[in-house]
Amino acid sequence: MLSEHRTSRRNVLKAVGGVSAALALGGAGVLSAAAPAGAAPGDGSGLRIVQRDEHDARMWFYTFATDAIGWQPAVNVLLPDDYHTGDRTYPVLYLFHGGGTDQDFMTWDRLPEGGIRAWTAGKPLIVVMPDGGHAGWYSDPVTSNSGPRNWETFHMAQLMPWVEANFRTYAEHDGRAVSGFSMGGFGALKYAAKYPDRFASVSAHSGPPSLRRDLGAVANWANVSAAALDLAGGTIYGAPLWDEAKVSADNPMEHLDSYRDKRVFLVAGTSPNPVDPFDLLNETEVLRGQQEFRAALDGAGIAYEAHEEPGGHFIRPERARNDIDGIIARLKKA
């Protein structure tokens, strides 16, 4: 797991070096707003299925055409073992991957010892795992030079309605959870804050909860990584000056009350690899950000479950299993 991430990190850091100067000089991007998409019949999602594979009893695969994204994003939908033997309705978990060239909709299925399939075996839960870009940051960017990359629009305005029209899920607050790793953990916290009526549980596995702390370290990293990997010099939040309204809208720390009465689950590493600059800087920022976030939740009287674990920036299987059990306990029962 760690070695795979290191390969990706080198690519990211190399690419970042090539775009940092352009961002500092205010390199411009082309505005890339989501255009209306032709809706698939009956679901109103704006998605058209391009590929599908439903041969596996549990893991179904799709790619879509959508005007929100300039290529064809993919989604894995993991079904409960007994989905095909009855007519039960199930709660659903939207599970997001991290950033980097080795991260995509298959991340959670590639993990050792069966990954997400093993962790959910026999459990009454549908898991939806969509593409989020190499550095899409679960956002609609301020600028893009590579066509539309409107991941928030795709996930929240298109994919969720499609899932609820095509699978037996509870289309309500107490029927949905959102979770993710790293960039995906930020995306989970962000979506739960921006759409508080949609999710009853939110989890961040090594996900940063603050865009503004440490002189905007995470917002700046979102800009630089997205410019290098996804947007051909465009940015998530604008450069050299941020779109301050967008940063505030996306910043979990500025929407604490959105987490009230939700299940909140946080994991951070306490001992990143000191000879891996990416791991050291990334998980150090995550840990300090989560500590600040927890203090703010304490001050607001909002409950949460938090874990500080040895190691750095990687998915911890035992905590992922704990999270899944907690999600099932919190959501509406199948």
Automatic annotation (TrEMBL):
Coiled coil: none
Keywords: Acyltransferase, Signal, Transferase
Single GO term (MF): diacylglycerol O-acyltransferase activity
Reactions performed catalytically: an acyl-CoA + a 1,2-diacyl-sn-glycerol = a triacyl-sn-glycerol + CoA; 2 alpha,alpha'-trehalose 6-mycolate = alpha,alpha'-trehalose 6,6'-bismycolate + alpha,alpha-trehalose
Known EC number: 2.3.1.122, 2.3.1.20
Leading EC class: transferase
Pfam name, any one: Esterase
InterPro entries: AB_hydrolase_fold, Esterase-like, Mycobacterial_A85_antigen, TAT_signal
Signal peptide residues on this chain, from the entry's feature table: 1-39
The family this protein is said to belong to: Belongs to the mycobacterial A85 antigen family.
PANTHER family: DIACYLGLYCEROL ACYLTRANSFERASE_MYCOLYLTRANSFERASE AG85A, ENTEROCHELIN ESTERASE-RELATED
Protein name: Acyl-CoA:diacylglycerol acyltransferase
Species this protein is from: Streptomyces benahoarensis
